[in-house]
Amino acid sequence: MESQAESKEVNVRVAVRIRPLLPKEKLNGEEVCVRVVPNSNQLVMGKDRAFTFDNVLSSKTTQEEVFQLCVEPLVKSCFEGYNATVFAYGQTGSGKTYTIGGGNISSLTEEEYGVIPRAIKQMFDIINAEQNISFCVKVSYVEIYKEELQDLLDVDKSSKEIHVREDDKGNTVIIGAREVECSTLDEMMSLLEAGSAVRHTGSTQMNEHSSRSHSVFTVVISQTWTEGDVLATKRKQSQSESIDGLDEEITHNTCAKFHFVDLAGSERAHKTGNVGDRFKESVHINSGLLSLGNVISALGDPKKKSTHIPYRESKITRILKDSLGGNAKTVMICCISPSTASFDESLNALKYANRARNIKNLPIINRDIQSIRFEEMQSEIKALREELARQRTSILSAGGTEIDLEKAHKDASQIKKLEEKVIRLQTECGHYRVIAEEAYKQLIQIQGKDFLSRSQDIRLKDWLDLMEEIKNKVPSTLSRDQWESQTIKDLQSELRKAREDLKNDEEIFADKTKEVKELKARNVELVRHL
Ligand SMILES: Nc1ncnc2c1ncn2[C@@H]1O[C@H](COP(=O)(O)OP(=O)(O)OP(=O)(O)O)[C@@H](O)[C@H]1O
């Protein structure tokens, strides 16, 4: 995928959500130490510590309002091809899991659903209402537990099989995690529920169901649409006025991912009462959050602007690299408890959140590199064709012969046929390659498994060897990228040839026009003589 830069940087948006006092806190006689300034995005901690954020959500804000204010715009952006991230940050027990919505979903009413169930519902609503675009939606769900990646959609998978890497464009990718294609909301909801159920949680003095890991639920949305399909629909709806500017042959591809991140909460050992394993978890949680704090500081502190950003210090900061200071649109929801007993922790969280507001991202639309080049070529071809048509008309008005026109027409249709053939073959080849590579990835995991008979295993091995051979052979010494660019080069040379033909035609037409003019002049002369 190649990316197109949008012209302007945008800041990470920061919302603060204050949860209500919990019954237990009320019983303990704890009091509220934070208030929201009415009709503003301000809150005041204690007597006079005022903070302003992009959104300040009071304890009365509903789950639907949180979604509408903070996440709905990101879902829309994702369909435009932008990567998006929403992450919840805050002290243990401050309401992160409740807000993000990856907890025990089956125990919730729909009104209590957090951000993820609402966002994926909206995604499928958009998909189901769209007639002209074909979608492929995939989901993965991982957690970082004691600094190791675990697959929440495949608990048997060893953490050693999952890695955070950068692809050749510098984008962060999680390799090895199970990715499941979903065609309905129900399918995705089941995966969210199943994955959330196996997440590491435990009881602490601060939170009965405390998340002991950072979780990342990722939805990848790929879209393909042709302007031809849009035209067909518009024609069906007789919307001829909005047809201008569309070209039947142009295909668009975008692919964007949406990360929903529920961080483990920062905690103080003496408050959580953690000992043994729970304490060890605490150490990992706090060190991951410390790295995140360092990244936020380095990016968000204007004085530290040009210094090194310590993304590599922990897994969570590596995963969030695109989301903080990268190419995604990001919203941070900082959750705080309103209780006086959590004053210091809430104040700290607000200071971090305040710094995060200064982080600038450069969102880009993720588009397939080939489709960008195809589009460029297709529009060039279109321009050439128009030029040819113009030439033809001018010859006609200058008295060109039928034969000239016939030749020009023949050439143009030959060029068109060639272009169509090249594009068709290219698309067909691309599809087969994607399917074969997908099968190869799946089959490599099955190889050697007990449930295969010996002969099946041998046949599978032969297939994999053959695939390997083809991968190495096609084309023998070229990498896939080189091969793709070779194909693009072939297309370009076809184009060059078409352009040369056009130039030749232009010259012939110019000669013919001159000849016709001379003949006319001679005729006039002759008539005058007679
Ligand atoms: N806005 C809210 N309205 C009502 N109850 C809430 C709200 N936010 C959180 N709670 C309740 O507060 C408790 C703690 O919330 P939650 O588990 O989401 O915290 P957390 O920040 O994810 O904690 P940890 O970091 O320990 O996992 C839960 O019982 C949850 O239902």
Provide the helix percentage: 40-55%
CATH superfamily of the largest domain: Kinesin motor domain
Mean pLDDT: 82
CATH-defined architecture of the largest domain: 3-Layer(aba) Sandwich
Tally of individual helices: 14
Quick one: biggest sheet?
9 strands, mixed
Structural class: alpha+beta
- The shape, in one word, is elongated
**Strand composition percent:** 15-25%
CATH class of the largest domain: Alpha Beta
**Any low-confidence stretches, pLDDT <50, length ≥5?**
1-6
Question: What is the count of distinct domains?
Answer: 2
Query: What small molecules accompany the polymer chains?
Result: adenosine-5'-triphosphate
> How far from one another are the termini?
74 Å
Find the count of extended strands (DSSP E, 2+ residues): 20
CATH topology of the largest domain: Kinesin
* Estimated radius of gyration: 31 Å
Organism: Sinanodonta woodiana
InterPro entries: Kinesin-like_fam (IPR027640), Kinesin_motor_CS (IPR019821), Kinesin_motor_dom (IPR001752), Kinesin_motor_dom_sf (IPR036961), P-loop_NTPase (IPR027417)
Main location: other
Binding site for ATP: 90-97
